[in-house]
Design brief:
heterodimer; A: mainly alpha; two-stranded antiparallel sheet; 1% strand; B: six-stranded parallel sheet; 12 strands; 43% helix
Chain lengths: 403, 343
């Protein structure tokens, strides 16, 4: 393309703005409907959203909440979503729907716990990489099985990954309820992992150290955040700057065309799933190593891997999008409690908002996939009226990132 | 400009604080509004069981004392620490955690806020190994579940002995969720009292390894019914609803747990009660009266913190007399139901 830097930048901006229109619209739609639901049921939507803002982002707290505490809670909640979001988004690019991020995360948690307990005496420089790598590997294997099945006998990955979620959930249940990992005290939880297996916190858990008016230990932000952010960078580079990323996108466009172009489709599918599972497994290991330190019955009902599907969709499968979507979901999760305590609105409203976001993004998603800027297919079918403006806008944009 | 305004705010703030301090000292301490925070476990407020009952206790305390009571429902296990921390960081006078699932979270947060009082239903403030940290600002609200279990066990035993159950064969049963102390206490009292009233009775005990999925408990219950059990005691929370339903479908009797479960199924003849509302109310009352004490506070038949309710059933007069007699003896301490399941 013979364009100068000026118009290129402008068009890139247009493309980004166009890309954000749909998810932003979904969020606005969800909050509008959510507010309506609160108002109809006799609540005050402004008080509800003030509580949500305070609890999620530490903004506009009116009842003595500590802003720093709220923000740190949100960070703890969104950290695993960064990685599980990638675990869903990467297979999307290859045309695969990974519903199994939850199972892969649990596999990672189990591996991290087992290694962290068995080798609890080892020092951190050895043990910490061991538990994180172990979790990553376990997640990769958990996703690799559906990948191999898909590539060899064509078993649909949606079905196999969902089924493996159940296998993982029940495995966790078996392990800590009467199984080999259950601690001897009769509760459904494992023993804690060794001190060397724990991710360091940004602030030491020292009761004497007061930061922002509270003991430092209440801010639970751990170094897993850095790993999560690094995962996003790796995802973006992998997808757009490597030949594997090119192959993944090509397979996602058209398997037949990719095969014709000399790409080993079966291998690409397997590798994509392995990498996706690795990210999810890492998230599981980080939850154990950074937050919980043992496998507990809370993991029976964990939904991080399912929220990740919404995060990946809302983030349109891009690294930046996943970051923002994760922050939004983490903030909603953290904000619900403050909303209930301050405004008396049940924190179930958060689940309603999440469902509404997912609903409206899903209604739009298939259309978005056909956008040339996203799917890179110039000959899109005739668009319908509302999407038309967006699509023609995006179609004008020259493709700057690839060849 | 900005500075002077800040300064004014500061002065006003100090003045307000002084006023507040004067108010509380001259008013004899009665003007203080105590702030109580209640954190439910993942069961939520509508669990028809102990989260609900804890809220009932809080509401009763609201009408009796000058308190501000706020409730937060935990949506996942991730929420326990942040929810407890939120109340504690706002200097609430008492933060109540409902259920043993919150033990580690209460242990962690109570260590960070030594000046805030905590109470926890069915547990203590523990470390990750579930060892009690014995923080002096944590009050454990425990129950003698065996007291409540004994009352319904005696009822079941008497019905079997007199042949007044649906298919009398001197076999009754209990379905536990997970084999943990609170569950086994119930079953211990149940078996002990049933054997006392009907020495030849056989008491089947099974576990579903689950507290939430009714289908799991239903499986265990169906097996027990096929082994001739015709009175089934559920000790498995939400999972146990499956026991009550299985009994209803097979036309035999069932017994509910924790809260009064007469509305759950028509087969429910009685419920073993753990009066979490009484415990919550008592904990709040102690804080308001300045009588908070760390350590365990146990609720039993003796202090009306445990008991039973007769549900969709009319008890023959002679059985009622025996039950009243047993309750009086447990209350007086002449009979003590065991905490461990007898052989």
């Amino acid at each position: 393309m013979a364009t100068g830097p000026g118009p290129r930048l402008a068009s890139a901006f247009r493309r980004v703005a166009g890309g954000f229109a749909v998810p932003l619209g979904s969020v606005v739609f969800a909050f509008a409907v959510g507010g309506l639901i609160v108002a109809i049921t006799g609540g005050n939507p402004f008080a509800a959203y003030q509580g949500l803002m305070c609890g999620g982002l530490g903004i506009g707290c009116a009842n003595g909440e500590n802003s720093a505490l709220q923000i740190s809670t949100t960070i703890v909640f969104f950290t695993p979503l960064l990685m599980t979001g990638v675990a869903v988004a990467l297979p999307f690019r290859a045309g695969l729907f990974n519903i199994g991020a939850e199972g892969q995360l649990l596999a990672g948690s189990v591996a991290c716990t087992v290694i962290g307990i068995k080798f609890s005496g080892l020092p951190a420089p050895i043990l910490l990489p061991m538990v994180l790598l172990g979790g990553t590997l376990a997640g990769a294997i958990w996703a690799g099985v559906p990948g191999v099945l898909k590539a060899t006998i064509g078993a649909h990955e949606v079905v196999t990954t969902i089924m493996l979620n159940y296998v993982a959930q029940w495995l966790v249940r078996y392990l800590i309820v009467g199984g080999p990992l259950q601690a001897s005290n009769g509760f459904s939880a494992s023993s804690p992992i060794g001190a060397g297996a724990r991710l360091p916190l940004f602030l030491p858990n020292d009761p004497g150290l007061i930061i922002f008016g509270l003991p430092a230990g209440v801010y639970r932000v751990h170094t897993g955040l850095l790993i999560g952010l690094a995962a996003l960078v790796i995802f973006a580079i992998l997808l757009w700057r490597t030949s594997l990323g090119y192959e993944i996108r090509a397979v996602g466009q058209s398997q037949r065309a990719a095969r014709y172009g000399g790409i080993n489709v079966a291998r690409t599918i397997i590798v994509t799933m392995l990498i996706a599972g690795a990210f999810s497994g890492l998230a599981g290991a980080i939850q154990i190593a950074g937050v919980d330190h043992n496998l507990t019955d809370k993991y029976f009902n964990d939904t991080t891997g399912f929220d990740a599907i919404a995060v990946a969709l809302l983030g349109l499968g891009s690294a930046v999008g996943i970051l923002f979507a994760s922050i939004l979901f983490g903030a909603l999760h953290a904000g619900g409690s403050v909303m209930q305590a301050d405004a008396g609105i049940s924190s179930s409203l958060v689940q309603i908002l999440q469902a509404l976001i997912l609903f409206s993004i899903a209604a739009n998603f298939l259309r978005v996939l056909r956008l040339p800027a996203f799917g890179r297919r110039p000959s899109a079918p005739a668009p319908t009226a509302p999407a038309a403006a967006l699509m023609t806008e995006a179609a004008k944009a020259p493709t700057g990132e690839t060849t | 400009m900005g500075h002077s305004r800040l300064k004014f705010l500061g002065v006003a703030g100090v003045a307000l604080m002084l006023l507040a301090a004067c108010g509380s000292s001259s008013g004899g301490g009665t003007t203080k509004t105590f702030k109580i925070g209640l954190v439910t476990d993942i069961g939520g407020l509508n669990d028809k069981s102990f989260n609900h009952l804890a809220d009932v206790g809080l509401e009763k305390a609201k009408t009796d004392f000058k308190i501000q009571g706020d409730v937060v429902e935990s949506k996942s296990g991730d929420d326990y620490v942040p929810n407890l921390t939120n109340f504690a960081s706002k200097n609430y006078d008492l933060v109540i955690g409902v259920g043993f699932l919150m033990q580690t979270a209460v242990g962690t947060v109570s260590g960070q806020f030594p000046n805030v009082h905590f109470a926890i239903i069915d547990g203590a403030g523990t470390d990750a190994n579930f060892n009690d940290l014995k923080h002096t600002n944590v009050q454990s609200l425990f129950f003698k579940e065996q007291d409540a279990g004994a009352m319904v066990g005696a009822l079941a035993g008497l019905l079997e002995k007199q042949g007044k159950s649906k298919k009398p064969a001197h076999v009754i049963s209990a379905v536990g969720g997970i084999s943990i102390p609170p569950v086994n206490h119930y079953i211990a009292g149940y078996k002990w009292a049933a054997q006392m009233e009907d020495p030849g009775i056989k008491v089947l005990v099974g576990y579903s390894n689950n507290f939430t999925d009714p289908a799991k408990c239903k499986n265990v219950a169906v097996n027990q019914i096929s082994s001739k059990s015709d009175i089934l005691f559920q000790v498995a929370g939400g999972c146990g609803i499956g026991v009550l339903q299985a009994a209803g479908q097979a036309g035999v009797y069932s017994i509910g747990v924790d809260a009064d479960q007469k509305d759950s199924d028509s087969s429910v003849i009685a419920s073993a009660l753990k009066k979490v509302d009484v415990a919550t109310y008592t904990a709040i009352k102690n804080v308001v009266n300045g009588q908070f004490q760390g350590g365990a506070l146990t609720f039993s038949i003796a202090n009306d913190g445990a008991g039973y309710a007769i549900d969709n059933f009319s008890v023959p007069a002679d059985i009622q007399t025996t039950l009243d007699d047993l309750k009086a003896k447990i209350k007086a301490g002449t009979l003590t139901p065991p905490a461990d399941i007898p052989a």
